[in-house]
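Checklist before submission:
- one chain only
- standard amino acids only
- sequence pasted in full

Submission:
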Amino acid sequence: MKFRTEIDLKSSDLRINHSQNLCLFGSCFTDNIGGMLKTHGFKSVNNPFGVLYNPASIEKQLLALLNQDAPTESELFQHQGLYSHFDFHSKFSHPDKEKALSSMQNAFYSVKLEQLDLLFITWGTSRIYRLKSNDSVVANCHKLPANHFLRSQLSVDDILKSYNKLIEKLLSVNPKLQIVLTVSPVRHLKDGFIENQRSKARLILAAEALEQSHSAVHYFPAYEIMTDDLRDYRYYAEDMLHPNTIATDYIWDKFSDFFFSQTTRDLNRELLKLHKARHHTLFFPETDEAKQFANAHLNRCREIMKTHPEINLDEYVEYFGLIGTKSF
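Returned file contents:
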């Protein structure tokens, strides 16, 4: 007897491997998948400007990158003792204006759109906030009073109109670029239960239309896996909004089957073993057993880098090498 329905995904025509340059923009679910990619040795930049929830804020940042409109000092504002930017996450805010601006500019210049192979975009909500003062979309309200903003909702047509132009611009700069769209499974219940579903529906319909209109656009059903496959509160974190670790791991497995070849999946298993060994606590690193453990993994790192020069394991080599040779 079956107690749940499982989504059976066919493999995507798009293949992702370790030689490619990846960049991810979007909601906090992007951080989860981006973290998995990093753990498994992929060359990825994850949410360089921080979490972005809505299509308009993501579009704004990508257009800024295309036009090389880096953040400027005049765009910063001070609130509660911190200098912030409406297009950047609060992790970039700082009491020192120069340090705040420097961190934002460093993040901005870390993204080279013309060098990317894959761009992942995760939409979380179609609701947006605009500044009353100039009608510009903000990515983060930075705890300013609500009367500074106007709240509205993007329609499917709004998203399609802006993203059709955005995709054309991205491909004109980088014709080889492939784009993966996904809708975040994180629930935005502050807007209301019905409103959250209607918001997600707009995003799903827009993603479908873009996938059908552009051969470079692909869709991964993270939202559908969470709501129609797992479909149980035991797969949510304590806040009942975010997928928990079990759910994230399950979606990652689906992601792997969808986008990775068998060779890439086999390599991922090897890299995950190294990652776990790197973060394994050695209570007695001075013992011969610990040094043997470290040297075995050091040799495996060197073997992988020799056969896969596109993978950088220098951090692991340094760590295992230090334990394997250090005298206590």
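Reviewer check: Residues 125 and 321 are 46 Å apart (CA to CA).
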